[in-house]
Specification:
Layout (H helix, E strand, L loop, with lengths): L11 H13 L4 E6 L4 E4 L2 H6 L3 H4 L4 H5 L3 H12 L4 E8 L5 E13 L2 E11 L1 H22 L9 H18 L2 E9 L2 H8 L1 H17 L6 E6 L2 E9 L2 H16 L2 E3 L2 E3 L3 E8 L10 H17 L5 E4 L3 H5 L14
Parallel strand pairs: 11-12
Antiparallel strand pairs: 1-2, 1-5, 3-4, 4-5, 6-8, 6-11, 7-8, 9-10
Helix pairs in contact: 8-9
InterPro entries: Biofilm_reg_signaling, GGDEF_dom, Nucleotide_cyclase, PAS, PAS-like_dom_sf, PAS_4, Rev_trsase/Diguanyl_cyclase
GO molecular function, one term: catalytic activity
Cofactor: Mg(2+)
Length: 333
C-alpha cells in the first residue's frame, strides 16, 4: 500500500484522487465504457485529442465520440465486447489539424464471467513511427553506401559481381551475348599531379556521368577503383552492336570540360570482351571476364589510348585465365 509522508496509509478517497491526478497527467487517453458503450470514466487527455472535456464525455457513446472513425473501429469494438482483447493502430486528427499516429488497446472488463464494458487505452506512437522511419532510412543509406561509390554515386565492385552473374544468367536464358568493358581514364595520374586531386575528383565525376548517360537503361557502369570503370552491356545481338555502343561512349567522354578555370579534354581507353553462353560449358566467373577485358584494355593503352580493343576468348582461354593478385596495379599509360 502507498504511504503518505508520515507513514500513514492512504485512505480510499485519497488513493482515488491521486490515481485520477496520475492518469490526468498522461498524454495517453484512458477511459472505461459500459455495456451500452457509454463512457463512465475518462482522463483529461481526451480534451487534447478530441477537444472534449471529461465532464462532457461522461455519458457519451463511442459512436458520438469517434464520429467518422467509428465504422473503422467498429470491428475492434465488437470483438472487445465479445471478450477479445484488441490492439490496433489508427491515425487520429486532433482539433488543431495535427494527425497523431496512435496505438489503441481495447481490454474487456469482465465481471462474474460477463463482459460489462471495455477499458480503452490510446497512446501516441508518432515519435516511435518517426524513429522507425529514420532507422529504415539510415539502413537504406548504409546499404547504398556499402554498394555504391561515395564520389561518383555509381555501383562499386561489391555490387558488380552480382550484376555480372545476373547478366550471365540472362545470356544463357535468352541466347544473346553480353559484353563486359573495362575502361580507364587516359593520363589520369598526370591530371592529378598537374591540377590537384580536387580537379581529379571532378574529372572522375564528369566521366562517370558521361559513361552512364551514353549507355542504355539496361546497361550499368561500375567504378572499379581509382580511375577504372566496368561497363556491363547485357542482351547484345552482335559484336558490331557493341562497337557502335562503345564508339558512342568514346565520343561522349571526349567532349571538353571546364573545371576550375582549366579546359580539359578527358579520354578513355576501353577493353572489350564479348561472351556467349554455350550449352556444354559452364559460365566463367565474373573475375575471369574482368581479367579478359583487362587484357584488351592493356592493348588499347599500348596502341595509343583513346580507343578500344576487343578480344573474344575461347572456352579454353577462360579456363586458363590467371587472375591478378589484389595488390597488383595496371601500368599507368
Amino acid at each position: 500500500m502507498s504511504l503518505k509522508s508520515g507513514g500513514r496509509p492512504l485512505q480510499n478517497d485519497d488513493a482515488g484522487e491521486i490515481l485520477l491526478e496520475l492518469v490526468d497527467h498522461l498524454d495517453a487517453m484512458i477511459a472505461c465504457w459500459d455495456s451500452q458503450r457509454r463512457c463512465i470514466f475518462a482522463n483529461d487527455a481526451y480534451q487534447h485529442w478530441f477537444g472534449i472535456r471529461r465532464t462532457e464525455l461522461i455519458g457519451m457513446t463511442m459512436e458520438e465520440l469517434l464520429g467518422p472513425l467509428y465504422p473503422q473501429n467498429l470491428p475492434f469494438i465488437d470483438a472487445a465486447y465479445q471478450g477479445q482483447r484488441q490492439v490496433f493502430e489508427r491515425e487520429i486528427t486532433t482539433p488543431d489539424g495535427q494527425v497523431r499516429h496512435s496505438l489503441a488497446t481495447y481490454t474487456p472488463r469482465i465481471l462474474g464471467g460477463t463482459v460489462e464494458g471495455i477499458f480503452v487505452h490510446v497512446a501516441d506512437v508518432g515519435p516511435l513511427k518517426q524513429l522507425e522511419r529514420q532507422l529504415r532510412e539510415a539502413k537504406a543509406d548504409a546499404e547504398r553506401a556499402a554498394h555504391h561509390d561515395f564520389l561518383t554515386g555509381l555501383p562499386n565492385r561489391v555490387l558488380l559481381k552480382d550484376r555480372v552473374n545476373q547478366a550471365l544468367a540472362l545470356s544463357r536464358r535468352s541466347g544473346q551475348k553480353l559484353a563486359l568493358v573495362s575502361a580507364d581514364i587516359d593520363g589520369f595520374k598526370h591530371m592529378n599531379d598537374s591540377h590537384g586531386h580536387s580537379i581529379g575528383d571532378q574529372i572522375l565525376v564528369k566521366v562517370a556521368r558521361r559513361l552512364r548517360d551514353a549507355l542504355r537503361e539496361a546497361d550499368s557502369v561500375t567504378r572499379f577503383g581509382g580511375d577504372e570503370f566496368i561497363l556491363l552491356l547485357p542482351g547484345v545481338e552482335s559484336l558490331q552492336q557493341v562497337e557502335v555502343m562503345v564508339n558512342r561512349v568514346l565520343e561522349e567522354v571526349r567532349a571538353p570540360v571546364e573545371i576550375g578555370g582549366a579546359f580539359l579534354k578527358p579520354t578513355c581507353s576501353f577493353g572489350i570482351v564479348v561472351y556467349e553462353a554455350t550449352p556444354d560449358r559452364p559460365d566463367p566467373e565474373p573475375d575471369v571476364l574482368i581479367a579478359q577485358s583487362d587484357k584488351a584494355l592493356y592493348r588499347a593503352k599500348l596502341n595509343g589510348r583513346d580507343r578500344y580493343e576487343i578480344i573474344q576468348p575461347t572456352p579454353i582461354d577462360y579456363e586458363r585465365t590467371v587472375l591478378p593478385s589484389p595488390a597488383s596495379s595496371r601500368l599507368e599509360l
